[in-house]
Amino acid sequence: MAENLRSPRTTAVTVLRDLMNTHVVATTADTSVAAAAAGMVAANVGSAVVMQGPFLLGILTERDVLRAAASGEELSASMVSAWMTLDPQSASPDTSIEDAAQIMLLNGFRHLPVVDGRTVCGVVSLRDLFAARIRRPPRG
What's the pTM value of the predicted model, to 2 decimals? Predict the structure, then answer.
């Protein structure tokens, strides 16, 4: 009888297309870490995709910026290319949130570019995935 009283566990968001942040900060490998970090702060995001023309070359994350800062190098003179993750793993907009979480957890990263064909169309973070799975009670 208790089984019938439980509400079904449903989530409206099931694939990355419904969840991904489409406001993507893009930079280039020859941009300074300081300038790329300033763009991330201005957009209130934790990563910037590194583009070479229309192609995804890498990703620079808040962790990378922190490593660069801890190195003692001058961030306005240090280039993104020295700190980015080259050729990052990505997912398609139709990837399930469960599959994206597994990719991110198994590989130890917090940001996953979402690519449709060869076009970067978004980024998803672990925070985005958690938010999709946490049900908040309605405000009363």
Answer: 0.83
